[in-house]
Design brief:
By secondary structure, this protein is mainly alpha-helical. 71% of the residues lie in helices and 0% in strands. Helix 2 crosses helix 3, helix 2 crosses helix 5 and helix 5 runs antiparallel to helix 6.
Length: 121
């Protein structure tokens, strides 16, 4: 069910993924203003990268052996920016909260837990 849940949530956002990422970054920067200095002024390229990353996570959710090394690699790449484990948790919490709001018609505890599990490093 894990993979189906992530795929269903992500596919449901097919036409809204850029809007989702825009809302995500807006909320992230409102809640944690210091993160804004870590990103370029123009976020379009960053948002496209984020959409690609989460598309892969949703697609391969049942293959943790494929996803985990990728997530660890992304985490290490961000360490040069001073990102630590708490920052990753902040990112994950805002991501899941924003996703839950856009998927409000069917979102429940199972969906939230599936995303938390998939994004656990």
């Amino acid at each position: 069910m894990h993979m189906k849940t992530l795929n269903a949530d992500w596919e449901a956002l097919a036409g809204q993924r850029m809007e989702f990422t825009r809302k995500f970054y807006q909320r992230l920067f409102e809640r944690y203003p210091r993160y804004q200095e870590l990103f370029p002024q123009e976020l379009d390229t960053q948002m496209e990268k984020m959409v690609e990353m989460f598309s892969g996570i949703a697609r391969f959710a049942d293959h943790i052996d494929i996803i985990r090394p990728y997530l660890v690699e992304v985490g290490f790449a961000h360490r040069r920016l001073g990102i630590d484990a708490q920052d990753v948790e902040n990112f994950k919490d805002v991501f899941i909260e924003t996703l839950g709001e856009l998927c409000a018609g069917w979102w429940n505890e199972e969906h939230e837990q599936a995303w938390h599990q998939a994004l656990r490093i």
